[in-house]
Predict the structure of Serine hydrolase.
Amino acid sequence: MITQKTITFLISLLICGTISAQLPTKKYEKKIDSLILTGFGNQNEPGGVFTVTQKGKTLYRKSFGKANLELDVNMTPENVFQIGSMTKQFTSVSILILEQQGKLKVDDPISKYIKDYPNGDKITVHHLLTHTSGIKDFTKMKSLSSIAQKEMEPKAMVDFFKNEPVDFAPGEKFDYNNSGYVVLGYIIELVSGDTYENFIRKNIFDKIGMTHSYYASDRKIIPQRAYGYHKKEHGFVNKTIISFSVPFSSGSLMSTADDLLKWQQALNQNTLLNSQETQKAFQKYKLNNGEEFTYGYGWHLKEINGTPDREHGGSVFGFKSMGVYIPEEDMYIIGLSNCDCHSPTEITRDIAKITLAEIKASAKKH
């Protein structure tokens, strides 16, 4: 028979256990709060959203500042942001989906799809995916301002930079390049017979339930949209308007922190790609001279305190984004900002460092 004394003892054990489980959480939360507040501390300015999950469990999920200054609307963790170059992950996985379907190969020369592309028989899809093609990055071209607000067809966008002098021979160097990812978007359209926007929606967003992710638009009504801002000497201004057909498949998607977690989980679970194709995205490759570089297909492959990670940021007028995934701990950290004056890049990496240290310290105790 269980005595009152035993019941009291068990309850006290349970209470102590709960407290000891909560204490590190509160302490951890305060550490992350103070880190984020260094860059996102003013609640009357544009802000951001930061989330940390491990094995699908939320460790941290908070919003800071305003989603809309004019209407004085506070940011929430559900707000939709432009994610800039984090778009490249979706473009690279789309290429691998087409490869899995037998419709292209990453070793194919791009001349197979775009007949008149200069040196197209030497530049492969793989070169575009890994930023080793040597083609001119359109964001560095002075004439960019002449098309920035025009509605550009993908072919016209490719024609805009394809005849520029190349920076180096294919495979000779790694040099981060937006043009390569625009060409990839055009190839996706040519091979699939669909628009890039539709392809991403049908094959990724709809398939894995990313219900708050979109190809960006300034005209469509997008529920929970966070507005983008620049900071000037006299204060904040609304972001510069550009045509999303210009960054296209190199930087035109919108998403939320929660949807990006669904994306990461789908990659882990091989929902979209088989393990062989997935592996291609997350392995390091070599240049022509045999030197290894730290980029896969749409992800930088780096380390945080000696622990391998996969990461990528994004920057587009009015917005900055950063995602860090640590496979060893199944840990995903996302930082999204609605002002290009607040960068979440280093903060997101620092959150990863703190979280890793906490997990390792906790593992030692137990």
